[in-house]
Design brief:
single chain, 202 residues, alpha+beta, 3-stranded antiparallel beta sheet, two-stranded antiparallel ribbon, 8 helices, 5 strands, elongated
């Protein structure tokens, strides 16, 4: 509510990582060393979500040079920041694909090339795991298929799915059940390529 907001200070709603720079700017404004303070910063909503804003602030002094009050103009730029982040991720992914393609062309061992390729993609997408599955021969009815795990990458600190199965932490049948719920089987049976981010099995 407006009343609740008015009871808070700017420090209360500012992201902790942005407070120190604001303090330094306030000191410079009060000292007259800075006429206008402009920056992009983050505010924190009550639910913990962030609001990116563009802040423009200045200090008003009286005729004797004593500071009287601050004037601030705050513009919500959350949508723009989200678009910039999305664009950055897309560019990172495209660079990763290009780099991975170089590996596919330069490696003498195809398996090594594919492994390096999915590693680049995993890092670019900032995911925990990537699986590359191979489709086996479908049953005569065409309603069931078999998959085998050909390649797998996991970020440092995350166990490979094969390691979890071998260690007995996860049974292979449990892995299959998770895959069966999340993959587009109709498309796969029809021979269409699929891409899917799956839940962590650990």
């Amino acid at each position: 509510t407006q009343q609740a907001l008015l009871s808070l200070t700017w420090q209360d709603i500012t992201h902790p990582d942005d407070v120190a720079e604001d303090y330094r700017a306030v000191a410079r404004l009060l000292a007259g060393d800075l006429d206008v303070y402009v920056r992009e910063k983050r505010y924190v909503r009550p639910d913990g979500s962030l609001v990116w804003v563009n802040l423009t602030a200045s200090c008003v002094f009286d005729d004797a040079g004593a500071p009287q009050y601050f004037i601030a103009v705050i513009e919500d730029i959350s949508e723009r920041k989200a678009y910039q982040e999305l664009l950055s991720k897309k560019n990172t992914l495209l660079r990763s694909i290009a780099e991975g393609t170089k590996h596919l062309l330069s490696f003498t061992q195809p398996n090594d090339a594919v492994q390096k390729f999915i590693e680049n993609i995993g890092k670019a997408l900032d995911v925990d795991r990537i699986y590359l599955m191979e489709k086996r021969k479908a049953a005569p009815s065409g309603k069931s298929i078999r998959l085998s795990l050909r390649h797998e990458w996991a970020r440092p600190g995350v166990h490979l799915q094969t390691e979890l199965v071998e260690a007995g932490a996860v049974r292979a049948i449990e892995s299959a059940k998770i895959f069966s719920k999340e993959f587009n089987w109709e498309a796969l049976i029809g021979g269409e390529p699929i891409a899917k981010l799956t839940k962590d099995f650990s």
